[in-house]
Automatic annotation (TrEMBL):
This is E3 ubiquitin-protein ligase. It catalyses: S-ubiquitinyl-[E2 ubiquitin-conjugating enzyme]-L-cysteine + [acceptor protein]-L-lysine = [E2 ubiquitin-conjugating enzyme]-L-cysteine + N(6)-ubiquitinyl-[acceptor protein]-L-lysine. GO terms for molecular function: ubiquitin conjugating enzyme binding; ubiquitin protein ligase activity; zinc ion binding. It comes from Geodia barretti. Its EC number is 2.3.2.27.
Length: 230
């Protein structure tokens, strides 16, 4: 199986690349601090509940504690509607601000951004292993090259994947790395057993980098030396 990774035209890249632009905010820097949870130090976001004395606690911690961590008072189901209204106007820092993210977002945008934030911890992308490594995006490549030395790394724009022992029973993964266009790409070829012994192969090409960098490329797959690509 052969693949070719090529950059897409510049105009298309600009159109496809999604970027989140930080909004300029004139709000006091300490306003978001009013919503800080006293247990986990994350932000208390709507729906906002309070104890009988008016102290706030985030919904996650509320399920784990028996009383208010600030006054030891009883936790109830009373909503603080005034603080919920204030929260609608506050720009909260991303939870990965300590990793370098400078975004400030409304609470309705915060969780969506954090799911895809480039400063979030990344899991090891190597399939078929029990590797529990997590770290910043900038360290993913170094982790793969040092901790997974069995992965073959080649260079050039054309990727030729030589999979051995393809007739082994059960699901099997083959992994390799390709360096081209000043980027590293991980190629994963997966074999799955289908009904009555029929085999299916699936290939994934993943750029080790940001989503914006990945949108600058397209991958064309060609079947070589096989009977069918279905």
């Amino acid at each position: 199986m052969a693949f070719q990774v090529t950059p897409t035209p510049t105009a298309a890249t600009v159109a496809a690349a999604a970027a989140i632009v930080p909004a300029i905010s004139s709000q006091p820097a300490d306003l978001a601090a009013l919503f800080e949870c006293p247990v986990c130090f994350d932000y208390v976001l709507p729906p906002i509940y309070q104890c009988e004395s008016g102290h706030l606690i985030c919904n996650t911690c509320k399920e784990r504690v028996q009383c208010c961590p600030s006054c030891r008072g009883r936790l109830g189901t009373v909503r603080n509607l005034a603080m919920e209204k204030v929260a609608e106007t506050v720009k909260f820092p991303c939870k990965y601000a300590s990793n370098g993210c400078t975004m400030r977002l409304l609470h309705t945008e915060k969780r969506i951004h954090e799911t895809n934030c480039e400063r979030r911890p990344y899991a090891c992308p190597c399939p078929g292993t029990s590797c529990k490594w997590e770290g910043p995006l900038d360290d993913v490549l170094n982790h793969l090259l040092t901790a997974h030395k069995t992965i073959t790394t080649l260079g050039g724009e054309d990727i030729v994947f030589l999979a051995t022992d393809i007739h082994l029973p059960g699901a099997v993964d083959w992994v390799m790395m390709q360096c081209c266009f000043d980027h590293y790409f991980m190629l994963v070829l997966e074999k799955q057993e289908r009904h009555e012994g029929h085999q299916q192969f699936f290939a994934v090409v993943q750029l080790i980098g940001t989503e914006k960098e990945a949108n600058a490329f397209r991958c064309v797959g060609l079947c070589v030396g096989v009977q069918s690509c279905d």
